[in-house]
């Protein structure tokens, strides 16, 4: 049996008239989401594996994302740029809304803790840099004094 599309209706002999889903109703395919966000398909799949992004599968197995997916990907990118690990992003993503992103106060503790961790790492790196500089200076002094 054949199906004939006429505008937004799908006429089939068995079922009469049924609405055809628009692309917005079906959702955005992964390639479309990648183009819109500038994020590779591979990275979008990784976000999904990490529980940061959700999709539903079509009957043919293709991923489809909601209209909000580009905004969610934007939030993920902002949080990754802030140095947050994906496990933390997964925990706090439900507390983020809008394209802004608008972050609820419930996220402050996560962000504050992460900032403290970064500051500790910076302090450690500064000490390492000072020690390495001292070692290089001692090496250069040794080389000049033994010449």
Question: What this model shows, in words?
Answer:
It is built from six helices and eight strands; from the N terminus they run βββαβααββααββα. Helix content is 54%, strand content 15%. The model is unreliable at 1-20 (pLDDT under 50). Strands 1-2-3 form a three-stranded antiparallel sheet, with no helix packed on it. Strands 4-6-5 form a three-stranded antiparallel sheet. Strands 7-8 form a two-stranded antiparallel ribbon. A hairpin with a 2-residue loop joins strand 1 and strand 2 (9-12). It is of the alpha+beta class and 147 residues long.
Q: Which structural class is indicated by helix and strand composition?
A: alpha+beta
DSSP summary: helix tally? 6
Q: How confident is the prediction overall: mean pLDDT? A: 83
Largest sheet, strands/sense/barrel: 3 strands, antiparallel
Q: What's the β-strand tally?
A: 8
Give the proportion of residues in helices: 40-55%
Rg, please?
A: 26 Å
Overall morphology: elongated
Low-confidence stretches: 1-20
What is the N-to-C order of secondary-structure elements (H for helix, E for strand)? EEEHEHHEEHHEEH
Strand order of the largest sheet: 1-2-3
N-to-C span = 94 Å
Q: How large is the share of residues in beta strands?
A: 5-15%
């Amino acid at each position: 049996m054949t199906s004939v599309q006429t505008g937004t209706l799908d006429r089939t002999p068995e079922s009469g008239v049924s609405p055809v889903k628009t692309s917005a109703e079906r959702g955005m395919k992964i390639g479309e989401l990648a183009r819109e966000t500038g994020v590779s398909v591979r990275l979008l799949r990784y976000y999904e594996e990490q529980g940061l992004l959700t999709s539903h599968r079509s009957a043919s197995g293709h991923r489809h994302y909601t209209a909000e997916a580009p905004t969610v990907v934007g939030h993920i990118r902002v949080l990754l740029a802030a140095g947050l690990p994906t496990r933390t992003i997964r925990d706090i993503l439900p507390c983020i809304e809008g394209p802004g992103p608008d972050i609820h106060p419930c996220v402050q503790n996560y962000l504050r803790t992460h900032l403290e961790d970064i500051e500790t790492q910076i302090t450690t790196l500064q000490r390492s840099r000072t020690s390495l500089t001292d070692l290089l200076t001692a090496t250069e002094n040794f080389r000049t004094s033994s010449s």
